[in-house]
């Protein structure tokens, strides 16, 4: 189910807007400490608290406009609520920083489970975007499974050994750039295993 058509700019704004907003708010508030109910909260925690409803609203609007959310979007929102909520509730930024790790581990494990069953779950999610032969889907799924596990390890290394500011920039730009670069490196696979549409 692909959902209703939507202006690509609107779709991008709804998907990336909360992330960009998080970055801007963090840069603005990172040095500040807020006392709420007798408890001190660093700017990162306050920004995280604001990010959760913004993410929910943006995802809700996207769902309203398209009538559809893919599984990755749903899982991401659920983990944002869980780990972001834990960070705010416990006043501990580690939980939110672990969120990308959990996302990539879950995606990697899901794709890996499909591979063990001789299936490419990736094909179910992306077949409409990239028509590939079955062998191509299996190769891409194996590579992406390993890549997701690598990103999970990398996120853990960054947030555990570097500053919060470094992690925010890594999460906003580094992870996005890494995924973009990964698919760029698969150009040969798309060429060799792509399915030409006779209607084109």
Give a verbal description of the structure.
- The protein has 200 residues and is mainly alpha-helical.
- It has two domains: 89 residues; 108 residues, no CATH class.
- The chain has eight helices and two strands, in the order H-E-E-H-H-H-H-H-H-H.
- The chain has a two-stranded antiparallel ribbon with strand order 1-2.
- A hairpin with a 2-residue loop joins strand 1 and strand 2.
- Helix 1 runs antiparallel to helix 7 and helix 2 runs antiparallel to helix 3.
- It starts with 7 loop residues before the first helix and ends in a 7-residue tail after the last helix.
Any descriptors?
76% helix, mainly alpha, 200 residues
The end-to-end span amounts to 22 Å
Total of domains: 2
Whole-angstrom Rg? 19 Å
**Pairing-aware structural class of the strands and helices?**
mainly alpha
Strand order of the largest sheet: 1-2
* Range of helix content: over 70%
Provide the residue-averaged pLDDT.
89
Order of helices and strands: HEEHHHHHHH
Q: Largest sheet, described in full?
A: 2 strands, antiparallel
Number of helices: 8
Poorly predicted runs: none
């Amino acid at each position: 189910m692909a959902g209703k058509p939507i202006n690509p700019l609107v779709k991008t704004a709804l998907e990336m807007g909360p992330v960009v907003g998080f970055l801007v708010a963090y840069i603005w508030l990172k040095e500040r400490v807020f006392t709420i109910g007798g408890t001190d909260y660093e700017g990162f925690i306050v920004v995280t608290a604001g990010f959760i409803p913004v993410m929910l609203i943006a995802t809700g609007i996207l769902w309203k406009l398209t009538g559809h959310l893919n599984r990755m979007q749903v899982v991401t929102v659920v983990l944002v609520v869980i780990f972001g909520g834990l960070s705010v509730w416990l006043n501990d930024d580690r939980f939110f920083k672990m969120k990308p790790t959990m996302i990539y581990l879950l995606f990697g494990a899901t794709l890996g489970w499909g591979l063990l069953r001789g299936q490419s779950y990736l094909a179910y999610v992306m077949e409409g975007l990239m028509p590939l032969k079955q062998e191509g889907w299996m190769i891409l799924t194996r590579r992406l499974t390993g890549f997701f596990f690598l990103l999970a390890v990398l996120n853990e290394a960054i947030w555990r050994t570097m500053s919060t500011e470094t992690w925010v920039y890594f999460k906003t730009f580094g992870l996005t750039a890494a995924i973009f670069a990964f698919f760029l490196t698969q150009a040969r696979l798309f060429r060799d295993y792509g399915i030409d549409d006779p209607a084109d």
